[in-house]
């Protein structure tokens, strides 16, 4: 069965697919084309525009790590679109949609909305354009998973999971998180769980799956990971079972009251035991870390110089040096708010460079020690985020990273560095996320409250020994041991192309339609998103915008940048080829 004569396919209609659709029709209103293309929109989940990650149907305890202040300032609306007789109404910015106050109190604690709330915005924004296009015969929404994309003499042939084929002129893959092959550890745990009839949750999401009657107060749950996903799961296993947190006045601390239904024992563990660092409490404290205009301009100039000479860039040294200088300036500007130092700007910059290169080994009085217990680190990080404790250099660096990433994501979306340099660059960006992608302070307040209530245990948090036993998984550390009868994976795998197990990507690799940027990253694309094949072909009608372009594109995990330059450049390229 074949459906023919379609023009453009957008595969994966989460935020990035929505952005691609909008960018295409925004570009069309200023273009001269013989015919407005029809768009086929493929999304496996029922919530177009939001996708699975931002699903409006997920549990309300699953919070975004993007505060509404940032969304209000960054997530612009869609202007109205007029193409001949076609009229697509404007859609509100996030600020307008939530009625965010123009005069926001900078001392008010930042609010972090649920992922479902943001998903509702994205879904409504999609429906507002999709209905108009569908009524005009210019769009078709198909809740289907595409498993194969092949090039033809006139474009692409797509095949869905049911074997139905769709012929189009061009395809853009705007797919987000993709399933990956299980690690050896997860494979062993799955076999063990199956043999002993134990509960293993391999996928961190949806966290609502944990809210089940199979988990009782006597259940002992081990959570693999100590980051954002673990915090989401922690809330599902406490708030989701009827527990509650109460803020203790004038302390920036919470108290936890457990319910009778929830599991009484949660155990967190990871490879390094380092907790996530919360973002600053409010706009006033956040502003402490904003680089000066002069410092930011110097940073941009340093990155631009590297980008203009890609063949000379061997590693991420250019970024490390630029970050070191910018962080040193911010730290000195903190004055009495920071830990005291006699180092000058140059010496601080060099210390910051050493911190970036050896974060786990470097010991210094300006740094938060990695040797202190995790609960002490959580308390110290919370106090810094609330302005109650002198800022350490590593916390300062983490917050400066957020501003630096804003520049990289917005100004330098595409790099042409060689593979070794890109791998090094992405390595440092990923390593920054413990700070730069930190959770709201409420998440850390909740973690601390759970430890103090005796629910969350951190005795095994730093790389424990794990033994499979008939009753579950036995964790050992520093002479202590505990056996968990439920194991929860809290680790979201990075976008490594050759580890992705989805049929769509596997078929592209087998057909040599893609060229990986080394096995550690994603795939090579041109600046307009078109995929470069293994043979070096840059003219194939398949583009990719999203996580698996990591290695060519920076900022693939940023929601606001979904609506940025990559989608616009892809749309401009499509129209250019339509006119040829």
From TrEMBL:
Residues 9-178 form the FAD-dependent urate hydroxylase HpyO/Asp monooxygenase CreE-like FAD/NAD(P)-binding domain. It holds the Pfam family NAD_binding_9. It comes from the Bacteria. SUPFAM superfamilies: FAD/NAD(P)-binding domain (SSF51905). InterPro entries: FAD/NAD-bd_sf (IPR036188), HpyO/CreE_NAD-binding (IPR038732), L-asp_N-monooxygenase_NS-form (IPR052189). This is FAD-dependent urate hydroxylase HpyO/Asp monooxygenase CreE-like FAD/NAD(P)-binding domain-containing protein. It comes from Leeuwenhoekiella nanhaiensis.
